Amino acid sequence: MTDASLLSRVQDGIAWITLNRPQQRNALDVPTLKALLALLDAHEADPAVRVLVLTGSGRGFCAGADLAEWAEAEARGELESYGWTETAHALMTRLHTLDKPTIAAINGTAVGAGMDLSLCCDFRIAAASARFKAGYTGMAYSPDAGASWHLPRLIGSEAAKRLLFLDELWNAERALAAGLVGEVIADEQLLDAVGEFAARLAAGPTFAFAQTKRLIRDGANRSLAQQLEAEQAAGLLCGRSEDAAEALRAVADKRSPQFKGR
Fold it and tell me: Contact at 8 Å (CB) between 147 and 167?
């Protein structure tokens, strides 16, 4: 699939999605938000897709909200009603709740909602040139696309407040030390390294991955006893899956399993 603002291709079970507005530093306007949301829905429903990778074209990952679009809406007196926030929230929620594993390949600066987009992914792998900036308080705003929820859970409350209150620009190494990203790769090796990592996930038991994602996502709101019940229910589903049967056959045959994700 090719769109003015997005590029997408599926190869070997991996859906590569590229934000494609390099002249706007891949800023998120409403049409791009809607197109990305629709693309996520399509890839989630496509059995040929087992892993999703999100990256940006050009030198930046994503500059956040399209401020030019915001300015036009404000000039019309529609800043609070033209739909950016609601559409962005729908997108962030969808990305966060996808059953399939997601990877943000952060190829440059990620600011505001662009950083938030990466936070919604399961894994964040950054190029050495990547930079992270919340951007909200610098514009006299509070977070509006999930940073206040994700950051304390990823890096702790005090570090989250430092990034948000002081609006600091963090380089890739500082982001790695804080736990904001899981790995830093040389710029020229980023996509190859992400491709190798995505291939490992795509070859795995993605049905079990989906159950595990749900357990992790929902577990914070449960007691241990409730979580154990949820784990038992998820385990029963996994045990009845084709992948579980294949795993047992592979053990008996002394070979590597060939998982299908069902």
Answer: no
Does the domain spanning 6-202 belong to CATH 3.90.226.10? yes
- Counting every residue written for the chain, the total comes to 262
Q: Could you list the active site residues?
A: 89, 144
Q: Residue 147 is encoded by which pair of tokens?
A: 């940073």
Tokens of 227: 């979580």
Per DSSP, helices labelled H in 46-180 are 67-75, 84-97, 113-119, 147-155, 157-165, 172-178
pLDDT band of residue 4 (cuts 50, 70, 90) is: confident
SS3 at position 131 = strand
Residue 85 near residue 143 (C-beta atoms within 8 A): no
Q: How far apart are CA 110 and CA 116, in angstroms?
A: 8
Element housing 108 (H / E): none
10 φ, ψ (degrees, to nearest 5)? -120, 125
Instruction: Summarize pLDDT for 109-165 with one digit per residue, the tens.
Output: 999 999 999 999 999 999 999 999 998 888 888 898 999 999 999 999 999 999 999
Angle between helices 206-219 and 190-202 (to 10 degrees): 100
Give the three-state DSSP class for 189.
helix
Q: What ranges do the domains of the chain cover?
A: 6-202, 206-253
Q: Report the alpha-carbon distance of residue 61 to residue 107 in Å, rounded.
A: 5
